[in-house]
Design a protein that fits this description.
By secondary structure, the protein is of the alpha/beta class. 34% of the residues lie in helices and 23% in strands.
């Protein structure tokens, strides 16, 4: 049967494909049997090497940014899977900074799988952080997918704020989650983590809870201030923890999987 929604593995080399295919296949099967596709982009558009995997594929000539921006419309993508390798050269999409730059306008969720990795999908425990920042309904929707379809046990990490203002904003977010969780079929437990100082909340949660995967919001470019430019993007530090990370860009026109 022809599929109209796909989990798309963004591959650059055969080694990367070997790593990402099990992850992409895992999510394609769990998310109500979505299609699976390989996508490669290069200067010459060479795609012959993709044939060996027996999976539908697209090999494009051009740049990754253009291809990624078109994932939901041109390819029916609902989730992209990519690799991240802190040792990769800057020209490689697996370089964390390069990957974030190429995916900064992506309208679907994207999963960053660290290199090195044994390639075995581990998704039994997932964490999200609920702090003082503006929250996204799409984040909770994806959390519900991970719980209902993928079978993950979700832990909501709550930074232990001392500041009353920050604590009040966090409680507003918690009440919002409590309100919409029943409509999403979302079950979860909570855990208190240390309040962040110079370390991003998501990184603190990973260090405290050691989840198989973390679900996080990428930095909203519209809300960046001088501190963000000096300290760097929090998600860059998160990627360096070596934990598989499912990222959502904070946009008003995200494409979200419908079940």
């Amino acid at each position: 049967m022809k599929k109209d929604q796909y989990v798309i593995a963004c591959v650059e080399t055969p080694e990367g494909a070997e790593l990402l295919i099990p992850w992409a296949k895992h999510f394609a099967q769990r998310l109500n049997g979505k299609g699976l596709m390989l996508l490669a982009v290069s200067a010459d558009g060479d795609s012959e090497w993709l044939k060996q995997y027996g999976i539908p594929y697209v090999g494009l000539r051009g740049d990754w940014k253009t291809a990624i921006d078109g994932l939901p419309t041109a390819f029916g993508g609902i989730l992209a899977v990519t690799a991240v390798d802190p040792t990769a050269p800057h020209r490689s999409i697996t370089n964390p900074r390069t990957m974030l730059r190429q995916f900064r306008d992506c309208k679907i969720a994207y999963l960053a799988v660290p290199i090195p990795s044994n390639g075995t999908p581990l998704t039994s425990s997932v964490s999200i952080v609920l702090d003082h920042r503006r929250e996204s309904k799409e984040k909770f929707i994806w959390a519900s997918y991970l719980v209902r379809f993928v079978g993950a046990k979700l832990t909501v990490a709550l930074p232990d704020y001392r500041d009353a203002g920050l604590r009040g904003q966090q409680q507003n977010n918690l009440r919002y989650l409590e309100k919409i969780a029943p409509t999403l079929g979302l079950t979860y437990s909570t855990a208190t983590i240390p309040a962040p100082a110079m370390t991003p909340s998501d990184v603190v949660a990973v260090e405290a809870l050691r989840p198989d995967m973390v679900l996080a919001l990428a930095t909203d470019r519209r809300d960046r201030d001088v501190g963000d430019w000096l300290l760097g993007d929090p998600e860059l530090k998160l990627l360096r923890t070596g934990t598989p990370t499912l990222l959502l860009n904070q946009r008003d026109d995200l494409y979200v999987l419908c079940d």
